Amino acid sequence: MASYDILGLGNAVVDVIAPTDDDFLVANNLHKGTMQLIDEARAEKLYAAMGQTTIVSGGSAANTIIGAAHLGCRTAFIGKVKADPLGDIFAHDIRSARVSFTSLPAKDGAASARCLVLVTPDGQRTMNTFLGACQNLTPEDVDPSLVASSEIIYLEGYLWDPPEAKRAFLKASDLARAAGKRVALSLSDAFCVDRYRDEFLDLIRDRRIDILFANESELHSLYQTADFETALELLREEDILAVVTRSEKGSIIVTREETQAVHAFPVETVIDTTGAGDLFAAGFLTGLVKNMGLPECARLGALAAAEIIQHYGARPQADLKALAIENGLL
Amino acid sequence: MASYDILGLGNAVVDVIAPTDDDFLVANNLHKGTMQLIDEARAEKLYAAMGQTTIVSGGSAANTIIGAAHLGCRTAFIGKVKADPLGDIFAHDIRSARVSFTSLPAKDGAASARCLVLVTPDGQRTMNTFLGACQNLTPEDVDPSLVASSEIIYLEGYLWDPPEAKRAFLKASDLARAAGKRVALSLSDAFCVDRYRDEFLDLIRDRRIDILFANESELHSLYQTADFETALELLREEDILAVVTRSEKGSIIVTREETQAVHAFPVETVIDTTGAGDLFAAGFLTGLVKNMGLPECARLGALAAAEIIQHYGARPQADLKALAIENGLL
C-alpha cells in the first residue's frame, strides 16, 4: 500500500453557499457564525429561501486534506457519501486534488450531506448541515493498513455528531496510536465542543490526541471560561501540542514548555471565512510533515487561511504551494 | 398578467467551473476562449479530467436577465431544464433573484444542460456545453401574452444551436415586433456567428432585431473581415442600435447617425471573464429601460461587467444596484 503524510477522517459534505444579510438570519432563527444540524425537510425549506448559490465541495477535514495536498503532501481521506449527484461532486473534487479517496459510496439510505452556508457582509458564515449519508460512516470504513501507513491522522470534532462515525474516529485514533503515528483533532466549533466537552477532554487526557486545533471560542467552550488567559493555562497543562487560531490576531502555539504567538497574513478584503480554520490546519500539518519549526508551521497555516478567506468556498483557488514558496515557507 | 421590463429567452445552463492551465486545453484539444458543443459522453470524460469545480447557475441570456433584475428591472425568463438536480439548481437560483421563471421542467428526456468552463490564469474561459434538456425548448414554451407584456425581448444567438429553440426564438421575435416591443440579440460567440452568419444577418436585415450586442471577434466573424473599421462601417449601415464590447478598451455604440466610444471600468484583478458580455448587456438594457442616454447605458453595462469578472461565475455577488447608485448611474 502507498504511504501517506496525512490521512483525514471526516464528514463528506458539499457546501451550498449564498450571500445573505443579518435580517435573513434573524427571520430564519439562525445563530450567526455557528454550525447547526438540520434535517432534510428543514434543509429544503432553507434552500428555497436562500439566494443565488455557489456549490463547492467542503467538509472540514476534507478541506484540510485538500489544502495539504495542494501544499505537496501525500494525502488520503475517509468519508461517506451516497451514490447521488452531490456525492459524485464530492468524490470528483477530492480526487481531482490527487487525494486518495476510496471510501465506497452508499447505494441507498439518506442523500449525500450538504451544508447550507449563509455568508453575511461581514464575511461570517452561518452553517446549516444536513448530515445525510455521513450517518453511515462506520468503523468498517476505517482500513487499518491505511491508518498504519499514514504519518498523521487528522480527525474533526464534527465526527461526534453521527454516532457510528464517532466509533470510526475512535478506531482510527487507537490504530494510529498503536502504530506510533500522530493523531490530530480539530474541535470544529464552539457548539460542537459544548455537545461533547467531556468526551473531547477525555480524548486529550487519555492521550488519544497529540495535536489539537481550536479557535478562541472553541477554547472558551472547552474550558467553560470567558477568560482567555485562564483557558490558555488550562490548555498548557494538558501537555500536548495545541494551536489556538485567532483570525486576524494570528495564532498561539501552546505546549507544556512554551507559548508562542504567531502573526496572521494581512488580507485586504475578507469575502468568506468558510474554511479558514481548516486551511490553517492544512498549512500547520504540512509544516509538521516537512519538519519545520512550530512558528513556521503556524505561518504556513496562516498563509493558507489567508488565501481561502479571499473568495467563496473552502477549497483553494490559488496555487498554495507557489504562494508558500514565494513567502519563503516551503 | 404582470408586465416586465425585460423578458429573456435562452438556454438554461448550469456552469461547472474549474481553474486550469494552457497545457490542459492543448491536451484535451480545446480552443481557448470559445464555446464548443459536446455530447453527454464527452461531458462526463471532460468532467472527470477537470480539477475542483465551483458550480453556479449560468446560461448567457439568464445571466443577463439576473443582472437586470439585480439592477432593479422587472424580468422574466423562458428556458428549458429537466426535473433533475441541475435543473432544480437553475430554477432555484433564477427565482431567488426575483425573476419570473414559469417554464415547465421536462419530466423525461435528456438531463439538464451544463457548461464545463475551464478558466486559465489569464482569466479566459473555454466553455464546453452539453445542451441536454435545452434541446426540448419549443415554440409552445413561448407564451404570447408574456411576450406582449414585456418591453424588451432579449435573445441569445446560442438558441440557434437546438433546432426547436430557434423556432421559439423566431416566434418570440415575431410576437414582440407585432406588439410594438423591442427585440435585442446577443451574438453569443464568434463560432456561433460562424455557424449561423447568414441567418443572423437576415434577422438584422429583415428588421427582426432592434438592438444587437457583439464583441470584437463576433463582429469580425459576422462580416468576415479582420479590419475593425470596415466591420464597424458595415455595422453602421445596418441601421440598428448596435453595441460592440471590447473588454478593457470599453465599448462602441453604433447607430446610423453616430459612433460613440465609451470607457470600461478599470479592474484590479481579473479572476474569470465568464459572463462579462452578459452583464454588459444587463446594464445596457437596464439603461434603456430607465430611458438613460446611450453612453450612460454603456457605462452601466461596463460597471456590471467589471463586477462579474472579479470573481468566478457569471452571477453578481456584489449589490449591483448600490454599485450603480454609488457611481451615479442609477
CATH superfamily of chain A: Ribokinase
Q: Work out the strand percent of chain A.
A: 15-25%
Q: How many structural domains of chain A?
A: 1
**Shape call of chain A:** globular
Mean pLDDT score of chain A: 95
Into which percent range does the helicity of residues of chain A fall? 25-40%
Report the uncertain regions of chain A.
none
Query: Can you name the CATH architecture of chain A?
Result: 3-Layer(aba) Sandwich
Question: What class, by secondary structure content of chain A?
Answer: alpha/beta
Which pair of protein chains has the largest interface, and what are the residue counts? A-B, 25 and 25 residues
CATH topology of chain A: UDP-N-acetylmuramoyl-L-alanine:D-glutamate ligase
Using the coordinates above, name the CATH class of chain A.
Alpha Beta
